[in-house]
Amino acid sequence: MRLKRLYLTLLSVLLLTCLNVGAQRLAMHSWRTHFSYSATSELTQSDEYVYAVSDGALYSVLKRDFAIKTFSKVSELSDNSVQKVAFHDKLGVLIIAYENSNVDLYYEDGYVENIPDIQRKSMTADKTIHDILVVGNTAYLACGFGIVAIDLKRVEISGTYFIGPDASYVSVLSLATDGSHLYATTPEAVYYINPEQANPANYANWQALEGLNGKDFKKMVCDGSHRYLLRDDNSVSVYDGSSWQDSVYTNITNICANDGMVILMQPGKVRHISNGHADEFAFNAPRAAVYDSSRQCFWLAAEGEGVGRVALDHGTYYFMRPDGPVTNQTWRMKSLGEKLIAVPGGRFAQQYFRPGQVMVFEDNVWTNFTYDMLTSAAGRKCEDLVDIAIDLHDDTHFFVASYGMGIYEFRDNQFYKLWNADNSGVETIYPEQKPNETYYIYHRIDGLTYDKDGNLWFLNSETPNPVKYLDPYGKVHNLPFPQLRNSPTLQQIVILKNFPNIKFVLKPRGGTGVFVFDDNGTPDYIGDDKTISYESFFNQKGKKIAPAFIYDMTQDLNGSIWLATSSGVLLLDNPQKIFASNYTATSILIRREDGTDNADYLLDNVQVNAITVD
Hints:
With 614 residues, the chain is mainly β.
């Protein structure tokens, strides 16, 4: 037997696009990242660019013409999942902090210096980088254990400051400066120091601000002699140069300040204060902001709209964001020809209650059917989309399974119909609960697949007849296999390529195993079917294999079935012989390179979550 190349996916961070995309078709084995830019939450600016972060993805907007560029580990960066950014104007360098505490210095000519010291440091404390403040040629990082200073000219860490009592770890949430003092906001106190007059490495030199009431502090910004302190209850205390006043502003989600402008964000509104003058403008979901004094405008992290530009007189609004899927969460992807469809749902013993989104990539463009769109179109909330089937003869016609709501049908690339217990043979777990919500959110559907006759097969877990198919004429047929009655969490149906009457059903948990039936060419009549269930297998060495969970199942080009399990990979060769009483599975053996005939099982006792064949 010649072993085909297998891709065993434990964690996917990039999408390998193997689609024809016109003039921008990728070369074979080239990588392209497809990030979501629908949750922009952080930004900073240089003279020419605005740099923004959306759900870990970094992109820039050229101020003069709104041209957009995206960044990733594939092209320029050293890591994934950007957390915070700040810019040093004179040196022309963008400081990038990642979720794993890695740090990059990205220069606008494209050169990158990596500073992995915090990431690599072995310590029990939280190493999250919460904020970045640039003062002179130093970038101060507010970390979960204290403060780290980076000398941007020497490109090295110049100091680490443990500012808690007796040099203990303390989580620094934000940093600010009034031009002479450095302020570090922690949940229970705001510490300050003049680093030109006292050594910041000595914890005793850090003093707590007096006059503050309570605790639960989040962030402080400075504007001349004024200080603005945001608390966990979304109120802002203000120091006017002589005393603190509490709850001067309420319902504030973030505060920012630069170039003599203080910006306070709240749902649906942005307040700004300069030289004692306050004004505001409407803005749907502001997350962060900077003031551009040279262009007399604000640049804002605009949540789902990307980067927003608002003129100082509030007369003009512009929004810019890169094209991409609506979310970075992906549960399953299916492709046909030049079309790729991805869904972000989830389930195991229970559904995950993730908002339903259908993301379609075609002709080098993403089209997103959002939760709001699908909920409005179907008349019921859309959650936990877990599988896709594309019509082999018409790729504008496809179905999406929900592990809760039923089956969503799309025609001409538009939502057409929700199939559920109200209008078809699709079953809910709780039919007696109609018209309560419980009736509607327990249509547990998965395992969509087409056969050669255009029937759409699917699995309807925890119902009397979980194996079903929808014929081309719109009728749902139920197959009453007693072995599967009320079975939980049925996941996949694989139809053998060379023996299409034989179908494999995956049971990942709750009686983990594989159920196989041969419908004898009469799918509507089970009286002539052959069936068999396997909860364990014997391999070619006579070893019993009984995995606790089976996470995935696929068919290779020879028609063999591969199982990705909690204890490794299992091959079901010659699957048409599965009904024989002496059928054995195959565990792949990898010969040791020690000059002997000894061998080890491939990925023995290693959890394999997904498997596919090229």
